[in-house]
Design brief:
Strand content: under 5%
Order of helices and strands: HHHHHHHHHH
Low-confidence stretches: none
Helix content: over 70%
Number of helices: 10
Radius of gyration: 20 Å
Number of strands: 0
Shape: elongated
Mean pLDDT: 86
Largest sheet: none
Structural class: mainly alpha
Length: about 180
């Protein structure tokens, strides 16, 4: 409000600095948001390295770093470290895939998703369906059309919405051939 409505950037920064002091380590997501607003990279670094880091906070920090053009080697390192730290969480690999696609590293993205799916084979795992769909699209981007079509055709879903998404992906792969 101070920044965007009253155009008082100095007051907004003062408020964020106060929040950083008051929050301590009790609310890492708010702390990360304030640190990002202030460009406090040391605090963001400390938060992302924290043993108490949770997947939502990791996702929040990484998404902000991705949007700000943080050096690619550093981003790759953090994405890989956090995927290892949270092997069952879908949000970090999903975000990483988007980043890899923006770099046109489709094969790398496919390999990462293949590993994630191996670790998370249970169809009830959050993100399992979306991982298949996004992996099939990555195969399409790699011109591995048959691989993408076969992956989607092997899926067994009863939900009409999910079936429509699968059919769209299969059609995309068939159109690419």
């Amino acid at each position: 409000f101070l920044h965007y409505n009253l155009m008082d950037i100095a007051a907004a920064e003062d408020l964020h600095r106060s929040l950083l002091q008051i929050l301590g380590d009790g609310d890492p997501k708010s702390k990360a948001t304030s640190a990002l607003y202030l460009g406090d990279w040391a605090t963001l670094e400390r938060l992302i390295q924290s043993p108490r880091l949770t997947p939502p906070v990791a996702w929040s920090i990484l998404s902000s770093w991705t949007g700000l053009g943080t050096e690619p080697d550093r981003l790759d390192q953090e994405y890989r470290r956090l995927i290892t730290k949270f092997p069952n969480d879908w949000n970090v690999p999903s975000l990483y895939l988007g980043y890899l696609r923006s770099q046109e590293k489709y094969r790398e993205g496919s390999a990462m998703l293949e590993r994630w799916l191996e670790r998370n084979a249970d169809p009830r795992t959050p993100g399992h369906f979306h991982a298949h769909v996004r992996l099939a699209h990555n195969y399409f981007l790699e011109h591995e059309f048959e691989k993408g079509r076969a992956l989607l055709a092997a899926m067994n879903v009863s939900d009409r919405y999910q079936q429509a998404i699968i059919n769209r992906g299969i059609a995309e792969c068939l159109a690419g051939q």
